[in-house]
Design goal:
The complex is a heterodimer. By secondary structure, chain A is an all-alpha fold. Chain A has two domains: 45 residues; 237 residues, MetI-like (MetI-like fold), CATH 1.10.3720.10. Helices cover 74% and strands 1% of the residues of chain A. In chain A, helix 5 packs parallel to helix 11 and helix 10 runs antiparallel to helix 13. The longest helix of chain A is centred in the first third of the chain and has 45 residues. The chains are: A mainly alpha, B mainly alpha.
Chain lengths: 304, 280
């Protein structure tokens, strides 16, 4: 009697928990269906159609995907080469700056929180306001950057007005805003057991040796995490390209998402824009899966 | 006993010099924004750059903020921040609680689904959502910019779930014996315990809403509904692009609330970056 009552009660509890579980998760389940699953499938469908956003989409098979390499190949290649330029230069430079800042901050100095705040602050400035600020700093005639260079007798480039210097100008901006990367590196550095350094010191290891043989190898997962997130962010660079240069001069800052945005909301080529979105999705998916796969392996090594 | 060697003193002195100069470089562009915002137009184009505005032109702020409908944009942005915060605070902890503390069939599958939605770039869902909101007649309204907050955001749900998982189950068990329901446990016991995590989520929601540009750019098309970021961009592209003193004044006015919030919640802020950063 007592036992079966207990079973019923336990059963009742499990039931209550399950019902409550569904009810509590309901907002996300509904949101997932309407705002994630439906748009993702619709986007895939649109990518195989001609769609101007007003008339119903018409099926055109793989034409949109072919278009990237034929009619639109100039713009498509341009966005790819611009984006690859940023992947090759912007991501490693920001990673290096963030790592150097983190290593310096990780020394036992007084007033750490002041320096950390000072170095982090650029990251909280909204991209739009930041774009305004840097357009002024990089202004070729009255900007402070060229003004400073002039003191040293150097006539600076036109920065955002020059096809050759527009991307380096954006990289300069990014290097100023490495606070997030720095904080993640700092957390990674603080996770390295102090004994390793002590053991190395007993063996008479110098700072450089400690950095290259202990810090860097143990920081690999963090470096890789920052690398992948950096790549994903660079591939979705939009706001600054839209505000500061609007893709110019001579399409030198026409980045992937700006090109996609233009096709969708300026030319109303919603079908083509969707196919661009899916290519981006596949690239990001690949990068993320590499990250997940490799981080598993690293965790495994650490346990061993 | 530990003695400081001259080498060590030199090294730490060197570290201070480097840190101080890096901090200055880091803060300088913002100072430059404030300095420019207080200069007269004549001083801005002056050949040797001066770092002190003479005279200090406070009027720049008044002039800039009336030329760009600052108060109206501020009102719209604050409205969006409030709606998004309400939405996030309603949905995210509730869903996170369900994933962390309740057992239901398909939960783990759903959780993996939730994590994988983080990988979907905004560009993929952007077009169908635009069409969806257009068909609902919601273009040029604020609804597309806050409605999704009420259905949870994967990052925040994940973050809060991790917090719920760390709480001990003793309290919950005791409440169960007293006949407390799952909802009661959530509302009266667990929710108050995850306050620090809720603050982190609140700060990020505030920041992301305040700074959002692409969302308003797509959905809003009349000046009366502009947010601050959209208004600022409109001000710049609408003929004031080289009026640097006004542009800097408007920019600084836009970012000053963020700087205030940053200093009030700094501790949570920096924690939050690391927490969300190390999510994987």
């Amino acid at each position: 009697m007592f036992r079966s009552e207990k079973i019923i009660r336990r059963h009742g509890l499990a039931r209550e928990k399950a019902v409550a579980g569904y009810i509590c998760a309901l907002p996300w389940i509904i949101g997932f269906l309407i705002f994630v699953l439906y748009p993702t499938i619709a986007s895939l469908y649109y990518s195989f159609t001609y769609y101007d956003g007003i008339n119903p989409p018409t099926w055109i098979g793989l034409s949109n995907y072919r278009k990237m390499f034929t009619d639109e190949s100039y713009y498509f290649n341009k966005t790819l080469s611009n984006t690859i330029f940023m992947l090759i230069f912007d991501v490693p430079i920001c990673l290096a700056v963030g790592l150097i800042l983190a290593v310096i901050l990780n020394q036992k100095v007084k007033g750490l929180s002041f320096y950390r705040t000072a170095l982090y602050i650029p990251c909280i400035v909204p991209l739009v306001a930041n774009s305004m600020l840097w357009m002024w700093i990089l202004d070729s005639r009255n900007g402070i950057l060229n003004g400073t260079l002039r003191i040293f007798g150097i006539e600076g480039p036109a920065w955002l007005g020059s096809p050759a210097w527009s991307k380096p100008a954006l990289i300069l901006m990014d290097a100023w805003q490495t606070g997030n990367i720095m904080l993640i590196f700092l957390a990674g550095l603080q996770g390295i057991p102090q004994q390793y350094y002590e053991a190395a010191e007993i063996d008479g290891a110098g700072s450089f040796y400690k950095f290259t043989r202990i810090t860097l190898p143990l920081l690999t997962p963090t470096i890789f995490f920052n690398l992948i997130t950096g790549c994903i962010n660079v591939m979705q660079l939009f706001v600054r390209a839209y505000i500061m240069t609007n893709g110019g001069p001579q399409d030198s800052t026409l980045f992937y998402v700006l090109y996609l945005y233009r096709n969708a909301f300026t030319y109303f080529q919603m079908g083509y824009a969707s196919s661009l979105a899916w290519i981006l999705f596949l690239i990001i998916l690949t990068l993320t899966l590499i990250q997940v796969f490799l981080s598993r392996r690293w965790v495994h090594y650490e346990i061993v | 006993m530990k003695l400081y060697s001259p080498n060590k003193i030199f090294k730490s002195f060197f570290a201070y010099i480097i840190l101080l100069s890096l901090s200055l470089i880091s803060l300088f562009p913002l100072f430059w924004m404030i300095i420019t915002s207080l200069k007269s137009p004549a001083q801005i184009t002056e050949a040797p750059l001066s770092f002190i505005p003479r005279p200090i032109v406070w009027r720049n702020y008044l002039d800039a903020l009336t030329r760009f409908p600052f108060l109206n944009c501020l009102k719209n942005t604050v409205y969006l921040v409030i709606m998004n915060m309400l939405g996030v605070f309603f949905s995210c902890p509730l869903v996170a609680y369900s994933f962390a503390r309740l057992e239901w069939r398909g939960r783990d599958f759903c959780f993996i689904l939730l994590l994988s939605t983080m990988m979907i770039p905004f560009a993929v869902t952007m077009i169908p959502l635009y069409i969806l909101f257009k068909n609902l007649g919601w273009l040029n309204t604020f609804k597309p910019l806050w409605i999704r907050a009420f259905f949870g955001s994967p990052y925040y749900i994940f973050l809060l779930r991790q917090f719920f998982m760390t709480l001990p189950s003793d309290l919950e068990d005791a409440a169960r014996i007293d006949g407390c329901s799952s909802y009661g446990i959530y509302w009266r016991i667990l929710l108050p315990l995850i306050k620090p995590a809720l603050i982190v989520v609140g700060i990020f929601t505030f920041l992301n809403t305040w700074n959002d540009f692409l969302g308003p750019l797509i959905y809003i098309n009349s000046i009366k509904n502009y947010t601050l970021t959209l208004g600022l961009q409109y001000f710049q592209s609408g003929g004031y692009g080289t009026q640097w003193h006004w542009l800097m004044a408007a920019s600084f006015a836009t970012i000053s609330p963020i700087i205030v919030v940053f200093f009030i919640f700094q501790r949570y802020f920096l924690q939050g970056i690391v927490l969300t950063g190390l999510k994987s």
